[in-house]
Amino acid sequence: MTTTIWWIRRDLRLHDNPALHAALKNADVIIPLFIIDPMFEKSAFVGEKRLAFLYSNLSQLDQDLRQRGGRLVIRRGLPATVLTQICEQADVKTIYAQEDLSNYAVERDASIARHLPLVLTGGLTTHPVQSIRKLDGSPYTVYTPFSKSWKKLPLPDRSSLLPAPEQIAVPDSITSEKLPTKPSLSDEIPFPPGEKEAQRRLSSFLDDRAIDYEENRNRMDLDGTSALSPYFRFGLLSPRQAVISALDALQRAEIENAKAGIQTWINELIWREFFISILANFPEVSKTSYRKDLRSIQWQNHPDEFEAWTLGLTGYPVVDAGMRQLQTIGWMHNRARMIVASFLVKDLLIDWRWGERWFMQNLIDGDPAANNGGWQWTAGTGTDAAPYFRIFNPILQSKKFDPEGRYIRRWVPELTALPDRYIHTPWEMTKEQERQFGIKIGVDYPHPLVDHQFARQRTMDAYKRARGAIS
């Protein structure tokens, strides 16, 4: 009887799972194994909300496996040590795992593969990252040509999706530690666990909201996005299934709005894979700016201003709304992410790596590639980045993407009573108006930390000096 290990990392699903499929194909019994790496739990980049989401999904995966006669095996310890012990105990011939391209994962897997029969499969992206290259074999560093190359490759169809197994046999001799129960997933977190929930959300989005996605995706006050990022983060949804479902919906679409919305969402999925490619091919971006001419920016890095930003007390309502949404539910609307990131880097002149780290500590969907790519894009320091002189005006962004202030009022309740005229700029009220609306600026809600026009010029000067130093 042949035994394999399905080493589960970022693929907590049974449908369209290449690693699981390979393990089942090559063995009579498999060991569905999740290893709780001490490094992961102790990492400063992993917050309680993301751990809680992970543990809830492990519990759901265990239930799904038990419905098929199997079970999830949990072990704590260094992956190499745990895998060696189980391989010896169960006479395991092969370990199958989905490829992970984060820096830590690449180094860990390379080390393990030197001593154990580890086989890595696809599944993290729609196309293998290394299949999307320039004619000279080098990786793309600009999104548009990457996207064009991605779209030229044969796209999968529904027949290529791997079905979930009907039965899974797990050897009785392999014991499991108890499923983690703490931290528990808060009722405030609007992301129920499980791949069934991920697939339900995918269908709901494509059936109902994709038609207006192009128009509404930047509106922070509307439910206009797919909100699938936490499910992609832990592989509860196959990227291939997402693309195939989107292409199916595109074929069914009869109006231009729907077609445009679905096309735009597919482009967002490609952005995710572009950032994965960047991190895989340029691992140094996890620690420093990709652009060498912007590695010597003289950041201000005032700790008190950074703390005000993390607490949602900057005095700019849209920034504070985004940061408080993050505090409460571990997720933030993508437009809000760009606004708060721009404010930290280009209004407060605080190193983008401070913000990147805070997001990783607090986001349920915190992903090394996407998070780094997003921060370097906003800071203007990355591969395919916004020009360094593109500096979001938080007031204009607020008025454009939360025109009636509903997003602000939801997350900054002390401003609820303000009329639309002042919801974006409460400091413009007179003392009489403050009394009228029952809020005192500077007491009940802070004055702005910085004047945007002053901050904009200060940042432009800092970036120009950095570029000039290289020249």
Describe this structure in words.
There is one protein chain. The chain has 471 residues and is mainly α. The protein contains 21 helices and 5 strands. The protein has a 5-stranded parallel beta sheet with strand order 3-2-1-4-5, with helices on both faces. Strand 1, helix 1 and strand 2 form a beta-alpha-beta unit. It is globular, with a radius of gyration of 24 Å.
Topology of this structure?
Elements: E1 3-8, H1 18-25, E2 29-36, H2 38-42, H3 48-66, E3 73-76, H4 79-90, E4 94-98, H5 103-113, E5 118-121, H6 143-152, H7 195-209, H8 213-216, H9 229-233, H10 239-252, H11 256-281, H12 303-311, H13 317-329, H14 334-347, H15 352-362, H16 368-379, H17 394-401, H18 406-411, H19 420-423, H20 431-437, H21 452-470
Parallel strand pairs: 1-2, 1-4, 2-3, 4-5
User: Mean of the pLDDT scores?
Assistant: 96
Shape: globular
Radius of gyration: 24 Å
Largest sheet: 5 strands, parallel
Bin the strand percentage. 5-15%
Count of beta strands: 5
